[in-house]
Amino acid sequence: MSAHRPNVVLRRTMPLLAVLTAGLMLLTGCSLTAGSGNSAAEPGMTSGADKAEPVTPYDVTPLIKPNGKYIGVALEGVPESLKAVSPYKEKIGKQPNVLEFYSAFGDGFDTSGVRRIYQTGALPFIAWEPFKPSLKAIADGTQDAYIKKYARDLVQLNLPVAISFGHEMNGDWYAWGRTKATPAQYVAAWRHIHDLFQDAGATNVIWVWTPNVITPMPNVGLKQYYPGDAYVDWAGMIGYYALTGPHTFDTLYGPTMDQIRTFTKKPIFIAETAAQEGQRRRADVDDLFDGVKAHDDVLGFVWFNIPKRADWRIEISPLALAEYRKRATDPGFGFDIRKQ
Q1: What's the pLDDT at 38?
Q2: Which one of 110, 157, 162, 294 is least enclosed by Cβ atoms within 10 Å?
Q3: How many whole angstroms separate alpha carbon 311 and alpha carbon 304?
């Protein structure tokens, strides 16, 4: 069993008096305490007998800098249902090892859904969206009870989870974006949440800071939104191959990567991408795989396979899907996170 997997602390050998007492109880028809079986607990779960016993916190370090590349996806219905995952796997010919989903700030932590994702060999990735209350209110502590409960649920589950709080904060299209909140308020809210998680012992979180690529707003500096290396594990990016605008890895992601590298050396993860349907889509798929493979510090990507303002689903373009499937056969992409 890998060192980073949760291990239930072994029980001490029962002293002789306890053994004799147990035998006497059996002879007199009394039963022993329930849950005395010795079956191993599943990761993220404890057996009845082990409820009060400590477990080793899940070590996410091997997942922060893995040996292979992530090939992830966002699918409709996840995590309430994973019925879309198997058909998608069949289409691309590989099990995705990141499953991203979107959760509004204020919603409860979906323990069952996250566990189901992990059991497929994929990293659960939560895009945590603070539509309300304001970032200032979060930083001021008005939501501490909710945040602490969320963190405690994560600790109890004891499985790896990636969280991106307030993605695309440098844009102007979200309630927490640059026209609704200041960079200082964003940083303060992020740090406050992170500190509460740390206090709760929720060290099984990979913190993903995720601005939009800077091409649409080149004059909005990213450093002012950065919470600091002590608060971030991955420097993410969100950027799509559209019919107009940048259409190569270097022109779409390069300027953002260059700016990020002026203030942090954290690994980079493309938290959302896809290519718009059109004649260039097959080439865009090639370019994405080539770009991720060429950069050692880019850990992988999540393909947004959901219709939203455009139909980003890879399966609607047979040639692009065939290319995606061919490129996904590369053994450098995809790995079972449970075996890292």
Answers
A1: 35
A2: 294
A3: 10
Domain ranges of the chain: 61-339
Cα 26 off chain centre by = 49
pLDDT of residue 55: 84
Where do the DSSP E strands lie in the chain?
Answer: 70-74, 98-104, 123-129, 161-165, 205-209, 234-238, 268-273, 298-304, 307-308, 310-311
Question: Any alpha helices (H) in 295-340, and if so which ranges?
Answer: 318-328
In degrees rounded to 5, what are phi and psi of residue 181?
Answer: -150, 155
pTM, 2 dp: 0.85
Q: Which position has the token pair 């945590």?
A: 128
Picking from 225, 287, 282, the residue whose alpha carbon sits closest to that of residue 253 is 287
DSSP structure class, residue 315: G
Cα Rg, the chain, nearest whole Å: 23
Segment 36-83, tens digit of pLDDT = 333 334 455 544 445 556 789 999 999 999 999 999 999 999 999 999
Distance from C-alpha of 65 to C-alpha of 282, rounded to nearest angstrom? 29
Q: Minimal CA–CA distance to 198: which of 165, 154, 168?
A: 154
- HSE of 220 in the Cβ direction (CA atoms, 13 Å)? 19
Q: Which fold has domain 61-339?
A: TIM Barrel (3.20.20)
Structure tokens given for 69: 């590349």
How many other C-beta atoms lie within 10 A of the C-beta of residue 309?
Answer: 7
Cα 337 from Cα 50, distance rounded (Å): 25
- What's the CA dihedral at 179, 182, 183, 185 to 10 degrees? -130
Give the separation between CA 155 and CA 109, rounded to whole angstroms.
11
